[in-house]
């Protein structure tokens, strides 16, 4: 692809993603059609299909873009102890979504995040558990459980400021305790 075509493709994809954000502010993803998404992005349907298969594909691309600077889990759980790595913890991604709020509120957000951002087998906790001897299925289940729990807590808590910091610190200790227990149990066979 030539440099000009790459720029055009990027501009078109960005326009479609922005159109999806605008439409998600008004309705659920399941109710958004290719026609209205194309109209909102000011592209033809055939142009839309050159870049995406359906609105769900656009949604997944938006999630991937939005979540691209999310920290690995082990860095996240250390944030409440004063560790300040680059990137955002998952709970911040959920709680401070801004214009991406409608994206985060979609039922499919967590699955899209796990599948596009890291994938269960790319999660740093997955590697830790696998290296300790857990099967792929066991490690994936624990990673899914951990992410779902963090997502539910971040999405449901209305606490702010210091209160949220305290809640997060307790959740982080719980996660670290669970990881330590899993590793110890595997070592003790």
From TrEMBL:
SUPFAM superfamilies according to UniProt: Homeodomain-like
Entry keyword Signal: no
InterPro entries per the UniProt record, alphabetical: Homeodomain-like_sf, HTH-type_Tx_Regulator, HTH_TetR
DNA-binding region, residues: 33-52
Molecular-function annotations in GO: DNA binding
Annotated HTH tetR-type domain residues: 10-70
Pfam families on file: TetR_N
Domain of life where this protein originates: Bacteria
Assigned keywords, A-Z: DNA-binding
The protein's name: Transcriptional regulator
Organism (species): uncultured bacterium Contig1491
């Amino acid at each position: 692809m030539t440099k000009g075509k790459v720029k055009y493709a990027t501009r078109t994809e960005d326009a479609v993603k922005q159109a999806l954000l605008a439409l998600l502010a008004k309705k659920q993803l399941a109710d958004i059609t290719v026609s209205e998404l194309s109209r909102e992005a000011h592209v033809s349907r055939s142009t839309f299909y050159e870049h995406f298969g359906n609105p769900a594909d656009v949604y997944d691309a938006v999630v991937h873009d939005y979540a691209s600077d999310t920290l690995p889990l082990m860095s996240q759980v250390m944030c409440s102890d004063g560790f300040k790595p680059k990137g955002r913890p998952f709970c911040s991604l959920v709680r401070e979504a801004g214009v991406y709020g409608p994206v985060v509120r979609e039922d499919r957000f967590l699955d899209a995040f796990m599948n596009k951002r890291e994938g269960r087998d790319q999660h740093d906790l997955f590697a830790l558990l696998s290296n300790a001897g857990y099967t792929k299925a066991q490690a994936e289940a624990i990673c899914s459980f951990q992410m779902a729990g963090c997502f539910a807590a971040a999405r449901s808590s209305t606490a702010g400021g210091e209160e949220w910091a305290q809640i997060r610190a307790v959740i982080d200790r719980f996660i670290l305790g669970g990881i330590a227990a899993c590793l110890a149990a595997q070592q003790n066979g």
